[in-house]
């Protein structure tokens, strides 16, 4: 299927994967709104919330808690916002939940280690350290 997130699941497009289980994959957003911006997707293709089955909804929810804790533990964020677009406003038509770390006194632009914004690769190294 010509879906960019299905290609990520199949390994045809690389991603900075920070969490994976049988049903779900979480990886860093390529154009982050903040340091550590992550996406959680089902491995099976569902277009959006309207199409999701209850099993995958549950798996995404449970994974989002794990990933949120991972981001909280590895980044100096003070909060995490979850959001999920459906149809209008949805760029990629494969269900995905955004996890966006929040940093005090900022909206989405952030500071980690005194720097305004880190490269996705740099964030990946920080988060990954605790996974392996
Ligand atoms: P949406 O607007 O559909 O809710 O969000 C789609 C998100 O996917 C955007 O934040 C965008 O930066 C991200 N994105 C699009 N293509 C890729 C990709 O190839 N790799 C990664 N890691 N993120 C992507
Ligand atoms: Zn897909």
Description:
It is a single chain. This protein has a single domain (4-131), classed as HIT family, subunit A, CATH 3.30.428. It has helices at 4-10, 54-74, 120-128, and strands spanning 17-20, 24-28, 38-42, 79-83, 97-102. The protein is built from three helices and five strands. It starts with a helix and ends with a helix. Strand 1 and strand 2 form a beta hairpin. With 132 residues, the protein is an alpha+beta fold. A five-stranded antiparallel beta sheet has the order 1-2-3-5-4. The longest helix is centred in the middle third of the chain and has 21 residues, at 54-74. Zinc ion binds at residues 1, 3, 5-6, 45, 94.
- Assign the CATH class: Alpha Beta
- CATH H-level superfamily: HIT-like
Please tally the helical runs, counting DSSP H or I stretches of 4 or more residues.
Answer: 3
SSE order, one letter for each helix or strand:
HEEEHEEH
Q: Report the bound ligands by name, code or SMILES.
A: guanosine-5'-monophosphate, zinc ion
Short overview:
This protein has 132 residues and is an alpha+beta fold. The protein contains 3 helices and 5 strands, in the order H-E-E-E-H-E-E-H. It has a single domain, classed as HIT-like (HIT family, subunit A, 2-Layer Sandwich).
């Amino acid at each position: 299927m010509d879906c960019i997130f299905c290609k990520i699941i199949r390994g045809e497009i690389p991603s900075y994967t920070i969490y994976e289980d049988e049903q779900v994959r979480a990886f860093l957003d390529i154009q982050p709104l903040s340091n550590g911006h992550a996406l959680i997707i089902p491995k099976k293709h569902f277009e959006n919330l309207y199409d999701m089955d209850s099993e995958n909804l549950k798996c995404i929810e449970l994974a989002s808690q794990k990933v949120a804790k991972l981001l909280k533990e590895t980044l100096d964020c003070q909060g995490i916002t979850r959001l999920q677009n459906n149809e209008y406003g949805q760029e990629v038509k494969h269900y995905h939940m955004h996890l966006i770390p929040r940093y005090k006194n900022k909206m989405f632009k952030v500071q980690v280690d005194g720097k305004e914004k880190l490269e996705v690769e740099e964030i990946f190294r920080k988060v990954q350290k605790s996974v392996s």
